[in-house]
Amino acid sequence: MAVLNFIINNILTQAFITIGLIAFIGLLAQKKSFGDIVSGTFKTMLGYLVLSAGSSIIVQVLIYFGEIFTAGFGMQGIVPSIEAVNGQAMNELGLGNQIALAFLGIFLVNIIIARLTKWKYIFLTGQAILWMATMVIVFGADVGLGVVPNIIIGSIIGGIFAVAMPAIAQPIVRKITGSDDIALGHFCTIGYLFAALVSKISGNKENSTEDIELPSSLSFLNDTYLSVGFVMILLFIITAIFAGPEVVAERTGNLNYIVYAFTQGMQFVVGVYVLLAGVRLLLGEIVPAFRGIALKIVPDAKPALDCPVLFPYAPNAVTLGFVSTTIGTVIGMLFFPKIGLAMLLPGMLSNFFAGGTAGIFCNEVGGTRGTIIGGIAHGLFITLLPALLVMIFNSMGFINATATDVDTVAAALLYAWIIKPIIGFVGIWNVF
């Protein structure tokens, strides 16, 4: 068990090492030269780390933005956080070992399904698998499953999600990328497909976000980084003005709070630049290396990677998806409490990464208009599902807690609404 915990905690949860090992095995399987193996493995890990560095910059900036957004507009409510649920489950409920084993089980079930069926997708976003493992184990324990059944059933359900989500998203991903080389491994896929459906109904795919023609005076915004910077700097400055200097005084030091907001907007652009550079480096190495594994273990296997791998294909859609999703989450925050649900504060991290990806999906099927309307619908959707989960979590002892990624929320609701009643029925049946 100690060895297994070491592997899970120190290797499998370190995504860059896992992906590096996959690249290494793939290149080895293709009988590449020693130099090619070293180079491909190193560049794969480097690409992922550069991507992660860009993501970290964006995360830190968005944490600040979330703080001033909440303060500036006087919002109080629940902040969705699967991280908090994971921490409580491991530290207070003693489910750490079960979560670790389910993490490994999900990955193994994923490989088995990919090997035996036509769904040839290997889910490589380790953090997302960890969140799925957390949800299935927590809810499995709640419905009364023993340790072993909980791990087995959780691994099967999580493994099915790990294969099914990339599979159902692939038709659109294939259109976005123009190839079948990669898939999407991100447990927000149900939200992306919902947004895409709304976009397809309401939009016009002929008018792409990437073909937006601006007046000559604003032509500089055709540059991806300038357009992202313009939007974010404007959002940061406006929000900082509403928040006031006192709210951000601890962060700004002697720097004027408006100037600080400007610098944070620029930092966001830096994060996007670094992230996209990492994506390009990663994709240049992992796809050829992955074919080596595909040929040996899972013929025609496709790597399902984290959502930023799609960002270079439609950067304008990313920005528009983020903004429109944020609008949708604000509407949901104000409306859902009126029908008896919890007030959920907009999660800026989810809004950017999930909203940006939803924007790419929406643009592919519904163009600019579809991206705006579908993005707002996406914001409402990713607010509604976690809000439905709050009451269930409260009854389980997780006070004012809920999750973010809607696929993991769907797995939790599967347990609460379907598996729990079935187990209850079976229990009664056995009595009689």
> How helical, in percent, are the residues?
over 70%
The averaged pLDDT comes out at 86
DSSP strand tally: 3
Uncertain spans? 428-432
The largest sheet has its strands arranged as: 1-3-2
Q: Judging from the principal axes of the Cα atoms, what is the shape? A: globular
Radius of gyration, in Å, reads 22 Å
Secondary-structure element series: HHHHHEHHEHHHHEHHH
The major sheet is characterized as: 3 strands, parallel
Distance between the termini: 40 Å
The number of helical runs is: 14
Give the gist of this structure:
The protein is mostly helical. The chain has helices at about 1-10, 15-30, 35-70, 80-90, 95-115, 125-140, 145-175, 190-200, 225-245, 250, 255-295, 315-335, 350-395, 405-430, and strands at about 120-125, 185, 300-305. The protein has a three-stranded parallel beta sheet with strand order 1-3-2, with helices on both faces.
Your description of this structure?
With 432 residues, this protein is mainly α. It contains 14 helices and three strands. It has one domain (2-420). It has a three-stranded parallel beta sheet with strand order 1-3-2, with helices on both faces. The model is unreliable at 428-432 (pLDDT under 50).
What are the SSEs and their pairings?
Elements: H1 2-12, H2 15-29, H3 34-72, H4 82-91, H5 96-116, E1 121-123, H6 126-142, H7 147-177, E2 183-184, H8 189-202, H9 224-243, H10 249-252, H11 257-296, E3 302-305, H12 315-335, H13 348-396, H14 406-431
Parallel strand pairs: 1-3, 2-3
Helix pairs in contact: 1-5, 2-3, 2-11, 3-9, 3-11, 4-6, 5-6, 5-7, 6-7, 6-14, 7-8, 7-13, 8-13, 9-11, 12-13, 13-14
